[in-house]
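Human: If only I could read backbone structure tokens as easily as an amino acid sequence. Underneath my words sits a plain record pairing an amino acid chain with its backbone structure tokens. Take your time, and here it is.
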Amino acid sequence: MLEGEGLAAFRGERLVFAGLSFRLARGGALLLTGPNGAGKSTLLRLLAGLGRAEAGRLLWDDEDALADRTAHAGRIAYLGHQDAIKPGLTAAENLRFWGDMAAVMATLEGAGLAHLAELPARLLSAGQKRRLALARLTLARAPIWLLDEPTLGLDAAAVSRFGDQLAAHLARGGLVVAATHLPLPLPKAGELVLGTAA
């Protein structure tokens, strides 16, 4: 269980949100919605341990999630606005850290990218790079997926494949927290609406 209690955060000198609470059980998904600047990305970074809460607590299975930051990092797969793809490596090489070649090729096949496995990532389209970044989530095997606008640049077929990927992760007891302005293929997700931007 991932739980936030009374979380508050600043971005620069501005209070972005305060008193924010949620509970997310294993196999659950939570959509973060709200206008630009409302704190969706700030909250994701806080959940990933990359930002600091001004107030409140983040809990994992009723324990302070950030007491052991190394252990928390092992629970998290974070995909921000940038795809974190190395342009000089092939598509397969970009995933090789996360699994053996058989697992990498199976993951690329699932993402519809197997035919591009040996192509340098710099030659991939924006949507293909995003699909490669999303494929990395599966190989990482982290229980908590934190996603910032995950469908950015994806066509309808890729969004459908991503829906299958999300469903498989949730069926394994994983959790998903996703910031989005667009509908995601998460039919049973809860929603946390962050306030208006100042």
Q: What stands out?
A: The mean pLDDT is 93. The chain has one domain: 2-84+135-193. The first strand starts at residue 2 and ends at 11.
